[in-house]
Description:
This protein has helices spanning 2-33, 103-111, 139-144, 159-169, 202-214, 233-250, 266-277, and strands at residues 35-47, 61-65, 68-70, 72-77, 85-92, 117-125, 128-136, 176-183, 216-222, 254-255, 279-288, 293-301, 306-309, 313-316. It is an alpha/beta fold. The protein has 2 domains: 37-79 and 279-316; 85-277, von Willebrand factor, type A domain (Rossmann fold), CATH 3.40.50.410. It is globular and about 50 Å long. It starts with a helix and ends with a strand. Residues 1-7 and 10-32 have low confidence and may be disordered.
Amino acid sequence: MKHHWARRNVFVFVIVVLMSISAVQAGDKENTTATAVPVRMTVTLSVLGDRRMPDVGRQDVMVKQGKERVRVTGWKHADGDGVGLDLFILIDDASDSSLGSQLNDLRDFINAQPSTTSVGIGYMRNATVDIVQNFTSDHAQAAKAVRLPTGSVGAFGSPYLSAVNLMNRWPQHANRRVLMLVTDGIDRARRTNRTRISSTNPDVNSAATVAQRSGTIIYGFYTPGVGHLHRNFWEATNGQNDMARLSELSGGESYFLGLRAPVSFKPYFEDVQKNLDNQYLLEFDARSGNRAGLQPISLSTEVAGVELISADSVWVPSGR
């Protein structure tokens, strides 16, 4: 009996050792396939209230990819070294005519942009975009292109599919990318599929994926739409939730005052401008596998009173 138990213990020991060796070899193989690749993204710095923005250096920024900290290789203010900004303003043609009272503030915001900012203007309709002004550094010309919405819901209205359509048509270069969406957020193309408040909208997920892949920061501005849907608390609340989700996932913000039209967009524009003025270009060595894809990242700093705002995922190229 003793010999039987001794042989069994030796057998178990050998199995455990072999499993441990296999696990180590598999881990070594996985580590060898991971390659460090350079990644760049735009980060917005924010402080509470009217406090002065403190100096934040590269050594103050920590980046984690998943649970692992990665090496930060670059950190510079976005207005240096000729880095430009592409700013596109996309207005929902299904918006109510009350939006007209906000257009002069929008034109003032456009005209106040620095010379390094190119502005584009478009109107969303039927899940596509009618571009009325391509990117231009002639801000007066861009401001003149702003018009009243047509007040038509169209046959297939989705602000998120329109955003995807625009981002896929965006010129490819090194400029920062910011998209301002003026809409009620209601996805009229998919509303019959919504079963409860805060349920996930596939179009929002698609738009968030494209925004993260392309490095586009999205700011949402709520304005009531036409038709009976904007008076439906269920639909209007879902629309605002969708806008807030998309903005948050892309590293931006959304602005609304309940379900009413805001008295003025001017405070919102001032907040966006403060964000644009405090953006930095972050570079770090991301871990890449055999295929390109979105990877979750988190940023932090120990500088007191400073918040780092960014997309929660970044596109990492293949390490091959």
